[in-house]
Amino acid sequence: MGGREGYETLLNTDLRQEREQLGRFMQMVVEHKHKIGFQGTLLIELKPQEPTKHQYDYDAATVYGFLKQFGLEKEIKLNIEANHATLAGHSFHHEIATAIALGLFGSVDANRGDAQLGWDTDQFPNSVEENALVMYEILKAGGFTTGGSELRCQSTSVKVLINMICFTVISARWIRWRWR
User: Fold this and answer.
1) Global pTM?
2) What is the arithmetic mean of pLDDT over 58-81?
3) Which residues in 39-59 are b (16+ Cβ under 10 Å) and which e?
4) Angstrom distance (rounded) from CA 43 to CA 45
């Protein structure tokens, strides 16, 4: 799952049937993972809306209920995206803390969006405070256990790349200073 599972209207949607089909599909993915000996982590990326009006992977708590219903809560982890948390009406910090508390934390997509737009814009994160709180939660829980973090910037502008690196270094130093 990762952004396209949902519906536009209940007029042509059987929620029970769709959940059961999606749950069985995810069970088959897990079965296949074990059959072929895949050692990687299966991830679901949360997304509350867009492109459909109602998404089944709305937020960490919603996905936990879904995974629990189909016995998948120990098999699948979550990829938490900052902007998707905002679209769900939560903070990035909240979604990370919830995923960790439920044992579902898998990975992070630390971009941000424009809170006034209401859709996914994938902008570079610029809140040192919010990102420091997120990293604090992750470090407190033992850090990344299934990979790591990666800096991604699609710009080729030297100025933008230097700003990204400076922001990252400042964020890391702020975390170290704040929680030592």
Assistant:
1) 0.78
2) 94
3) eeeebbbbbbbeeeeebbbbb
4) 6
